[in-house]
Amino acid sequence: MVEHEPEPKNFAPKVPVQLDPPKNDPISQEELAKCDGTDPNRPTYVAIKGVVFDVSRNPAYGTSGQYHVFAGKDPSRALASSSLKPEDCVSEWSDLEEKEKTVLDEWFTFFSKRYNIVGKVAGAKNT
To answer: What is the CATH number assigned to the segment(s) 26-121?
Structure first.
């Protein structure tokens, strides 16, 4: 097993990423679900706290990737609890403990420094 140095708390990527200005376009749950990495003609999206990130360029979210379970969903609860279980890949996270909410906030920061924000989940209540 390879040991990895812990990433600095500012979550900056090792290789700088040029990001587009964030978009605020509404993306329906149905559209988000279609962007799950299985259709090569569609982007791959992951939402966190209702904010949709385009993770298309990271093969980890593709059909054979280790994080494919998150693609096309808002897996906020799973990220907060460090779970890869499909049943945890839901957007509801308000009932989590503070420690898990902090982890979720850290994931949001991590994603926001690496992936373009392409919109918000339409009707998302847990943002």
So the answer is: 3.10.120.10
From residue 59, how far is each of 49, 54, 64, 68 by CA, in Å? 22, 12, 8, 9
Domain boundaries, the chain: 26-121
pTM recorded for the entire structure: 0.89
Are β-strands 116-121 and 51-54 bridged in parallel, bridged antiparallel, or unpaired? Answer: antiparallel
Tokens read off for 31? 């559209």
Token pair for 41: 């003609």
d(CA 46, CA 54): 7
Count of positions (residues) in the chain: 127
The answer to whether the CB of 35 falls within 8 A of the CB of 71 is: yes
Which tens digits make up the pLDDT trace of 21-39? 999 999 999 999 999 999 9
